[in-house]
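Troubleshooting log. The previous run stalled partway through. Resubmitting the same two chains, unchanged.
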Amino acid sequence: MYFRSPALHILVVEDDPVIADHILTGLHQHGYDATLARSGGEALAAFEPNAHDAIVLDRLLPDINGLVTLDRLRRKGSTVPVLILSALGSVNDRIEGLRVGADDYLTKPFDIDELAARLAAITRRNHSRPEGAMIEVGRLQLDPASHRASFREDALVLNRKQYSLLAHLMCNADRLVTRSMLLERVWAYRFSPTTNIVESNMSRLRAALLDLGCDPIETQRGAGYILRSERCL
Amino acid sequence: MPLTPRLAAPPGGVGRLAIQAGIAFALAMAAVGMIAFSAADAWVSSRIDASLRYHTAKYLAPPDGHAVADGELIARITDWQRRKVLSERTYLLFDRQGRRMAGRLDLMPPPPGLSDVHFYGGGRSTQTGRAIATQTPGGSLFVIVQHSEAAENLHALLPSVVLLISLVAVVMGVSATLLFARLTANRLLETQRAADAIAAGDLSRRIPTDRLDGMFAVQAQSLNRMLDRMAELVRAQQLFSSNLAHDLRTPLTRLRTLLAQGAQGRPVPFERAERECAAIIAIFDALLRLAEIETGQLPRAMAPLPLRPLIEDVADTMEPVLADHGGRLDVGRLDDVSITGDADLINQLLINLLENVATHTPAGTSARLSLERDGEGALITIRDDGPGLAAGDHARLVRPFERGAAAGDARGSGLGLAIAQAIVRFHQGRLELGDAAPGLEVRVRIPANEAFSAAASAAPAAA
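Second attempt completed without errors. Output:
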């Protein structure tokens, strides 16, 4: 599908057989290699730093709970990216999970595309961009200081939300970014709006980019958006 | 639900209390008796001493001032003995060697001054008296002894009187306590019966106050008020649950119908099924969020929060949403006001209120958002030009699962305004729905964070 990187190996820790099967099948379809551990103990025994690129971790496990499992991993010095996948979804639960050392937190019920996209985001090696530097994808440029977007000879100034949206998509070029990821990272909202906030703002941004003569954003039906770098040339 | 086992009153509890109270009362009364007796005793003694001094002066210091010789004293004593056969008082004169020169009492010469003396008198056993001894100018010792039957009787009476008072006090204390306990128990019995009936499930039961008086009536009224409030909460909770069940029934029924289509071999419209699931999940998300806010389980991210940039950001976000609905979002006056708040909750509040305009009004409805600073703090107003609400809906709609008549089958958790209300309450504010004629006006008042607001309004010149 969207991910052309060499198959990443994911350790899935999940005790519910239906959900586990759903995750494994889904991740295979998205080009991941995935193995299953049915309990915290099994996960700790199976985990090998060089063999696993990320862990999908349930919180409510039959033996050691997910947070304790994660804590033990982190105490052993492991920096493997961990995504907690749990039915416990309150703000407190999330904060607790991230505090113990999770890299992302997804609440059940979840969408498999969402899970795959978030795994892609946390397994990516972060090449940090200097603060305030010009963001560039191909010939599309975005200036953080003036919120000016320019493509070839044309330029226009975006409003704050359009700027943040475009900046996030450009920093994650060629990767799927889901609506909920955008709500979390561009808006920093921890609630679920009932209207199409992301879609409405995205269509404004795309209209602006069309005026520039560059429309690199692709809608992935039901899942989210990808900014294609090859369309910025 | 943890049930508290019913505890029977420990047997004899009131009896023990009565005995304790009786003993305490008796001790107090005995102390009072002893104090009164000592005072009376001291008073009688002082009167006797004064009388002794007076009579000494009468003998030794005659009004004409001449020095009284021993011979004259002996003569006066002898004369007095002749005249008074029976008297409480006796006069004696001893020479320098302690030999009795006059007087009839068989007594060793006491030391000069006042003292208590013992002597044999009238063939009876030892008697006690009070004596005053004075040196005469001639060197002999003049002694007056007073034997007071009254004082002696008073002394003899003391133990029995104190004992009697104590006994009476014990009886009175015990019976007063028993009576008081009985009266109290009778009054508490009504409360206990009501509490037992409520514990058994009769939530409408109240404590009858017509036979109660004083603090018992006040306490019963206060308990009844508490019971009214609790019954109200239980009713609200029951209504909430049944509304929730009803609201979930609709998407679940649709979902089941779609699945049944599949079972009959017809194609299942997966996207519609997905939408129904999303609706169910949205209700639960909103419900959990509401509980999180109302029970104060949120981590306290309360901090000084300037509202103006937050509202500008929300306006930027929601403007395209309202535009897609065919309307506009205008931003009116924006004052610089800060509150103490949780930015995420205030965001949700404003997004919720603007989403209501986008989802519950006819296409083309516009809204205006403004922020003013007034005497009470921050006033956020969201006014739309839609059809507004029916007169009775303003109060009703802030309750969970209540929908406006115009909402029709509009989607949403039915909890939007309830959540908004909870967020405003969490910030010690008020949410009011009003008629904007035409349209709806939602006013949110939140107390300002004064210190921070003042600093912020002083700063913009530099910014």
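Takeaways: Chain B touches chain A through 31 residues (CB under 8 Å). The domain at 17-155 of chain B is CATH 3.30.450 (Beta-Lactamase).
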